[in-house]
Amino acid sequence: MADIIIKNAYVLTMDPDMGDIKGGVVVIKDGIITEVGTSTDSTADKVIDAGGCVVMPGLVNTHCHAGMTLFRGKADDMPLKEWLENRIWPAEAKLTDDDIYDGSLLACLEMIRSGTTAFADMYIHMDRVAQAVDDSGMRAALSYGMIDFCNKEKADAELNEGMRFVREWNGKAEGRITTMYGPHAPNTCSRDFLIRVKEQAVKDKVRIHIHVLETEAELNYMKENFGMCSIHFLKGIDFWGTDILAAHCVWLSDGDIKILAEHGVNISHNPVSNMKLASGIAPVSKLIESGANVCLGTDGCASNNNLDMFEEMKTAALLQKVSTMDPTALPARKVLEMATSNGAKALGIKSGVLKKDYNADIIIVDLKRPHLTPVYDVASQLVYAASGKDVRTTIIAGKVLMEDSIVNSLDEQSILEKAIQTSRELVARINA
User: Would you state the pLDDT for residue 8?
Assistant: First the structure.
């Protein structure tokens, strides 16, 4: 007896060997996919008729700061330096554990509603982020964001906190939480600190999440202080590897791209955030051509304003087309790979593909909408016409967290009310 059978679906497996299945069936038991095909002999306690819908892997947001939902719209239309130093950092200094929990739970609610089933988060007060993930039923790869600014005492304290978090939470929430080390960036962390972080991550057998070459200012800083860019600097300390998730990677040379590809580095592309802060355009087409694993992330709501990965997919595709002046650049199917299978690979989770023995992290997208009619190509429709609002059902680890657009795993109204109250109290503390 299975737990769930999804039938009558257009199944977008994201498995190149299997392809798409019309009139498909997906069978789930104990949080795992047990069958994908056109029919099944299994029976189940719950049968979902997905006629007129696409059943596909849940989206994977590979770069996020969940608690920053509390800053949504708080510091818009500002230069990056002013945005960060005058608005974001002072506000973050006033955040409490409970603030982060409330903001992170709001983020989880938003992601469940818009079809994201797993995310990578780097931030502060991470125990409360982990608690929000546990309470929401989501899957996440979490890291405490570490900055040492070349201060030995601070470096020791930051690494100790990172170690504590990694060891305390890895594998928790029935395995839905994995942990990573989160050194902020090469220009905010010292060389010795980055070496220590890499050594500790290898020892603890976990991955590393880091910002790299998000801005031209970082590029110039590294060249002025070390005579080389961040990519070569990190290569020089043997930092790169398949265990690294590098966010942004905007200011890359062709040589940098080659290094990232050769070392199997996972790159999280964040087009909306990069556009909003005028950070630049990442050379995604070149990275993909080089063989690098490129995935997709929203960044935090302070520099994006929402966590809708469907919007991120469309923006990523259009940005590459106009920046390369090539309408064939980054086609829909490739962007879907970035948001599903590539993202799962970057986080080291067995999701992102609908295939036997993979995690049952699945979404159902309703195509019976005016803006999604008619349908000639399902992949194109999902990338260029759909939005997170079209997600009808979200299943994570085999549990139905949202069905028929009703979230049943969380008290949505109380989360919204608490987030509003928390944001008001936070603003009052900031302005005090």
Answer: 97
Contact indicator for 363, 56 with CB cutoff of 8 Å: yes
Residues 6+ apart with CB under 8 A from 1: 29, 42, 43, 44, 45
Secondary structure letter of residue 154 according to DSSP = H
As a whole number of angstroms, the distance between CA 245 and CA 293 comes to 10
Q: Which residues pair with 407 in a beta bridge?
A: 402
Locus of tokens 């790169």: 240
Question: Is 66:107 a contact under the CB 8 Å cutoff?
Answer: yes
Q: What is the pLDDT of residues 249-297, one digit of tens each?
A: 999 999 999 999 999 999 999 999 999 999 999 999 999 999 999 999 9
Decide: pTM greater than 0.90. Answer: yes
- Going through 71-206 in order, the beta strands assigned E by DSSP cover 116-123, 139-146, 177-183
Sign of CA dihedral 290, 275, 384, 405: positive
Q: CA nearest 394: which of 385, 407, 384?
A: 407
84, 131, 143, 227, 418 from 70: Cα distances, Å: 15, 17, 19, 39, 11
**CA-based max dimension of the chain:** 66
Query: DSSP letters of 223-284?
Result: HHHHSS-HHHHHHHTT--STTEEEEE--S--HHHHHHHHHTT-EEEE-HHHHHHTT-----H
Any alpha helices (H) in 119-180, and if so which ranges? 126-136, 152-169
**398, two tokens:** 């085999």
Partners of 290 in the β-ladder: none
Q: How far is CA 214 from the centre of its chain?
A: 16
How many helices (H) and strands (E) in the chain? 16, 17
Residue 101: which H helix or E strand, with range?
helix 97-114
Distance CA 121, CA 174 (A): 18
